[in-house]
Structure formats: structure tokens, C-alpha cells
Amino acid sequence: SLLLFFYFSSEIGDDLCTDSDCPCHSNLNKFIFLNIPFIITPPGFHCSHFPSRIYYYVGTKMSFPQAQQYCREKFKDLATIGIKEELSRLSKPSLTWTWIGLSDNPISWKGIMGNDSNSWRWSVTGQTSKSKYSNWSLGQPDFAGGTQRCVGVNSFGEWNDYHCEERQMSICFGKKIG
């Protein structure tokens, strides 16, 4: 089952919008979306080429690699969360833990596993978030068993690391393919 909603972000890895579907934001970085092209830009706002994102909740439980593959085949990738407002929109419809596109990349470890903030990478880019935003649950990440390297989000918007082979629902983003 899929649940569709819109949100707008400037995270790396998104497709560019067209002039007619650009989200516009104030200097305070509050995002709004105008459904129709506008002729006069309201004072204090400017149109940016930040793309809109379409998110899909996928109700089928899968492992992280399966969810990642599914999202890449059917949409663009697992969800990337770069700002708090994005996270609050993502967390509302889901009542259980749900995969997002964040995992701990052992190739980038520089010390004890996961203590380096640069080891957590977004699926869509393979890079750390430019915004430096995170929302870990208390005591997370904890790397229980030394193998928890994939991240889920709960209904409160908090992140938790899990074994990548655990089966959870997932959140994909991008235009639906096919």
C-alpha cells in the first residue's frame, strides 16, 4: 500500500524543478508551494530551483537492501531527511519503524564504528547530509551486536539504528516510474 504526499527540499540528489513548479520560500527558509505559475513574487519571497519531493510509504516489510532496491526501481531512492520540517511530515502517517535512506558506511570509518558523523551516508548520494541535521532517539545509535548499520524512523520522527536485514516498511521518494 502507498500513501502519497508532497514536501519541498533542496537536498542533493533531487531533480531540478521547472519555473512553473518551483517552491518559493522567504528569507526565513519557510517553504510554501504555489500550484500555479505566479506573475508577481510576493515581497520577501524568491523562487528557487529547489525541487519538490513526492514521498511514498511502502507498507510491504522488507530488509534495508530490499527496500533500497525497490525504491530505486519504482521511484528514485529511500527517503532523505535534511531538515526538521521534512521529518515531521514523514513521521505522521507511519505508526511503526520505517526505513529511511540512511546507513553507516564502514568504508568511511575513521575510529570506533559510528562515532564519526561522516560515517552515516544518505542512500541517494552516498554523502553525509549538507544540513548536518539528525534526530537520533535517546541512546542511539547504539550498534547493538556491532552490526546495526541501517536507520529507521518512528512515529515521533526519531531515528534508530537497526540490523539491515530486519524487515520494516519503508519511505521512498521521487517520481513513480512506470
From TrEMBL:
<dbReference type="InterPro" id="IPR018378">
    <property type="entry name" value="C-type_lectin_CS"/>
</dbReference>
<protein>
    <recommendedName>
        <fullName>C-type lectin domain-containing protein</fullName>
    </recommendedName>
</protein>
<keyword id="KW-1015">Disulfide bond</keyword>
<dbReference type="Pfam" id="PF00059">
    <property type="entry name" value="Lectin_C"/>
</dbReference>
<feature type="domain" description="C-type lectin">
    <location>
        <begin position="50"/>
        <end position="173"/>
    </location>
</feature>
<dbReference type="InterPro" id="IPR001304">
    <property type="entry name" value="C-type_lectin-like"/>
</dbReference>
<dbReference type="InterPro" id="IPR016187">
    <property type="entry name" value="CTDL_fold"/>
</dbReference>
<dbReference type="InterPro" id="IPR016186">
    <property type="entry name" value="C-type_lectin-like/link_sf"/>
</dbReference>
